[in-house]
What we know:
The structure is a single chain. The protein is α/β, with parallel strands linked by helices. It has helices at residues 13-20, 57-65, 83-88, 101-116, 119-127, 153-165, 178-182, 190-196, 216-221, 239-247, 278-283, 300-319, and strands spanning 2-5, 25-28, 46-49, 70-73, 92-94, 145-149, 168-172, 186-187, 199-202, 227-230, 253-256, 289-291, 326-328. It has a 7-stranded parallel sheet with strand order 8-7-6-9-10-11-12, with helices on both faces. The chain has a 6-stranded mixed sheet with strand order 2-1-3-4-5-13. Helix 1 links the parallel strand 1 and strand 2. Helix 1 (13-20) runs parallel beside helix 12 (300-319) and helix 4 crosses helix 6 (153-165). This is 2-hydroxyacid dehydrogenase.
Amino acid sequence: xxxxxxxxxxxxxxxxxEAFRGRYEVRCLDVFLNDDTAPxxxxxxxxxxxxxxxxGPSVLRTLAAGGTRMIAQRSTGFNNIDxxxxxxLGMTVARVSSYSPYxxxxxxxxxxxxxxxxxxxxxxxxxxxxxxxxxxxxRDMHGRTAGVLGTGKIGEAFARIAHGFGxxxxxxxxxxxxxxxxxxxxxxxKEQLLVESDLVSLHVPLMPDTRHLIDADxxxxxxxxxxxxxxxxxxxxxxxxxxxxxRAGRFAGVGLDVYEAEAGLFFLDKSLEAxxxxxxxxxxxxxxxxxxxxxxxYTEDAVGxxxxxxxxxxxxxxxxxxxxxxxxxxx
Length: 331
């Protein structure tokens, strides 16, 4: 039996092949799963997908008609999957419930420090042999306030790094994390966190209740010289509202590893094409904004854990076992 994996990055392919070697053959494709590519899966009982796959009703029905019975998503997030339709079609859906939280937390801090200390601008200048310091002044993080929206494993790892910088910690979540409180974190309403924080970092899942968690009102509540970082899901921020505030000259820096309309853009080479997304095109022109293409998770450690968990999900499915990773059980 062959397993078909969509949206496989070059660095990821050998890890996937090794995880299944001696068990099953894996066919790795660099194209993403959507309406156009779904017919390729015909005859494959098991399909593995990435976070930017389109697993809406039409794609799921095409997969089911072609014989697919199990979807193994190589990510923690699953907002791209219509679980209700998958259940109706009798499909099993599994995800990776957790992997190295340090990968994302460390990258969030890389974004924060890059925009704070103007690293990209400085690097560009020195490549042109311009060694001036004008416009490159940043701020010490020590003694300032870090606001962490979402204090699960990744948020906790981010808070530990902030604690190491000597920052005051504010947190917001549906449940308090004792480990964060032991670091000195105070849990406060979101509105208070936004008003008092010099740095705001997002670490919550994307759900209907959290979509545009950072909307126009939230952005206006933030300090004019605050730093905003999002390494979680693009839909947490109202990007149009963010662009509006940036045009008004607000924020010391914004670091985004995700974008709410990233599907069909991120992980692909669009360098020779006209940019049709006006919001993204405007966003990347601001000198205080740094956008990366959803790479926070992309470390050997994290990707290795994701691949291993995906292989286990497939083996559990074939053996009729159910784990905490299963979103829609086998019918």
